[in-house]
Amino acid sequence: MKRIFLADGDCLYAGHEYLLTLLKMINENFPNLQRITSYATANGVLKYNLKQLKELKENKLKMFYMGLESGNNELLKFVNKGNDANQFIEAGRLLKEAQIKNSVTAILGLGGKEFTKRHARDTADVINNVCPEYFSLLTLIIGGNEKYIKKIDLLSRREIFQELFSIIKELDIKTIFRSNHVSNIVPVNGTLPKDKDKMLHTLELVLLDDDPWLDRVPQHEGEMHY
């Protein structure tokens, strides 16, 4: 076995001593292991100092998957995220200093029409400050989120593409970008900054299309997700 994904939550809340013991045990039992990865939250990362994080890295915990969701503080509070943008930036920079890779996700359409411009602008700003090795955009899923959906004015497909375009346009970092989750309408992937113009051109063509399908809110079509 070469790779192991740890648990189904923020493993950092297990505590440094326990987690370090666990990592050493894993390495002893899987001598050919190349890397261990896990989910993490900003609050979880900030419970650790640089020395502790480096010890985790030395024991092959090499990457975390972190949900930013949005870089807009008002929207983060609205969705009860539990941290603000500055805390996420602080956590991301700490991981960078510890040389632990970071794969960050945010959610298109999360704040509906009210937040869309601020959501796009502030999300790009946080990502530019964190400089994660990987950045992915998912799209708000309707199923299971019915109570939340009633609180916002949902975006049409065109508006989702516009939000995606706005975020990519403002990114000014080197990262592997992905928007190929099952929730996304169309996969848009590439390496930034190399593929930025190509991705933006693809989205511009979509936005110029006058197909009325793009101006409908997806779930009105009976779709399970965007």
Automatic annotation (TrEMBL):
Q: Which cofactor does it need?
A: [4Fe-4S] cluster
> Keywords on this record?
Iron, Iron-sulfur, Metal-binding, S-adenosyl-L-methionine
Stored SUPFAM superfamilies: Radical SAM enzymes (SSF102114)
Question: What are the protein's GO molecular function terms?
Answer: catalytic activity; iron-sulfur cluster binding; metal ion binding
Where do the Radical SAM core domain residues begin and end? Answer: 1-174
Q: Does the keyword Iron-sulfur apply?
A: yes
Q: What is this protein called?
A: Radical SAM protein
